[in-house]
Amino acid sequence: MKLKQLTRMMDRLTWIIGAGLGFIVTWLAYSLPFINSVIRVGGIFIIVNIITCIWLGFHLASHARGWQLLVFPVCFLVAVLFFGARYTLYLPLVYLAISYLAWSMKRSQTEAGD
User: Fold this and answer.
1) Residue 114: what pLDDT?
2) What are the DSSP calls for 34-101, one per residue?
3) pTM of the full predicted structure?
4) For 62, phi and psi rounded to 5 degrees?
5) Distance between CA atoms of 64 and 61, rounded to whole angstroms?
6) pLDDT class for 63, splitting at 50, 70, 90?
């Protein structure tokens, strides 16, 4: 019974995007030989992942599930620990901070509008 309630509380889109971009794309970025470190860090880890963090923050603000902001940074952290370079270990904290800022800005905007 509790497992059913937990799955109802979870947003599937957040988990798909969090696991997909956080783990699978990170693994691909480190595995594919034609992606150099500049494209990996600058293009994927900074631009694409920050846009994803902002979108997740806005998306989760309408669902009032702030704890799911941890999905993407944790998946990214696990992928970096297994496959990545140690200099990218600070990025999950940056992703969490950006997601939280987007989430809180959207929440305060919707509360002020009500």
Assistant:
1) 60
2) T--HHIIIIIIIIIIHHHHHHHHHHHHHHHT-GGGGGHHHHHHHHHHHHHS-GGGTTHHHHHHHHHHH
3) 0.85
4) -75, -20
5) 5
6) confident
